[in-house]
Specification:
Blueprint lengths: L1 H21 L2 H9 L10 H18 L19 H22 L13 E4 L2 E4 H4 L1 E6 L2 E5 L7 H10 L7 E3 L2 E5 L5 H34 L7 H34 L1
Antiparallel strand pairs: 1-2, 3-4, 4-6, 5-6
């Protein structure tokens, strides 16, 4: 009976097997999925390639700006880049001088040399109007015997200086007590250093702004690319000088705060 059942089902099983072997669905699935991993799909593959190339390029170029280095001789009819660089360097040098004269923890008679006194006859350095000497580490004395008429002006200049001094007048002698080097005093000097560096950056921005204005005046005689590259060069010069200013501030702050 079992043998008879097999014989009866043989035609049905045979047709089913033939249909399964001849059905293209399995093979078609393989053929559809394979191109996603190869270059046989002309629409999808370039899309992924562009995506990954863009991400890679962004990662590689992140934080990097294209450098500009224009030969100053080629644009001297537009602007003198060497002169602009000199003006920017002068800003940095002025900051260094301010740090040395106004923010020194060590006291000496030369600590007052940078103070300029305004008199009816003009402006003069303090050390040209009076003899400056140290009486003690906390006291500087200014002898005004040679220019007694300028005593009031010198006293005012000392009081209005960035050193936060409180001079005392005794006849032709001006006594200048110096603040003790406390932690609070050091922190105040650190704040003053920050103010001076910000002032230097303001001066730096003015130099760059004036230079850009000069460059823009040449738009009619020169190409837009030339003007654009010059503006980028000026910005790059200012950025580099600003980095030097920050370095000077960091060094001085470390010196003051220990």
């Amino acid at each position: 009976m079992a043998l008879s059942l097999v014989c009866l089902l043989r035609p049905v099983l045979g047709h089913a097997l033939v249909r399964q072997l001849s059905c293209p669905r399995v093979l078609t699935t393989a053929r559809v999925t394979t191109p996603l991993l190869t270059h046989q799909n002309p629409q999808l593959t370039p899309t992924f390639a562009r995506f990954y190339a863009t991400k890679k390029a962004k990662a590689k170029g992140k934080g990097q700006a294209a450098k500009v280095n224009i030969n100053s001789a080629l644009v001297e009819d537009i602007i003198d880049l060497d002169e602009v660089k000199g003006d920017m360097t002068a800003v940095l040098n002025t900051l260094k001088d301010d740090f040395t004269r106004s923010l020194s923890i060590r006291t000496s008679p030369g600590a007052l040399d940078h103070i300029v006194v305004t008199t009816p006859d003009g402006k003069f350095p303090l050390n040209q109007l009076g003899q400056v000497s140290m009486k003690s580490p906390q006291l500087i004395v200014v002898n005004m015997t040679s220019s007694p008429e300028a005593t009031v002006a010198v006293t005012r200049a000392l009081r209005e200086s960035s050193m936060k001094l409180n001079p005392e007048v005794d006849g032709a002698i001006i006594k200048v007590p110096l603040p003790k080097v406390t932690r609070e005093h050091r922190e105040n000097l650190g704040k003053l250093a920050k103010q001076l560096s910000n002032k230097a950056k303001d001066s730096l921005r003015r130099v760059r702004s004036n230079a850009v204005t000069q460059v823009k005046k040449a738009k009619e005689e020169h190409s837009e690319d030339t003007i654009r590259l010059l503006e980028k060069q000026l910005q790059q010069m200012a950025d580099n000088m600003a980095i030097d200013i920050d370095k000077q501030l960091a060094s001085k702050t470390k010196e003051l705060l220990g």
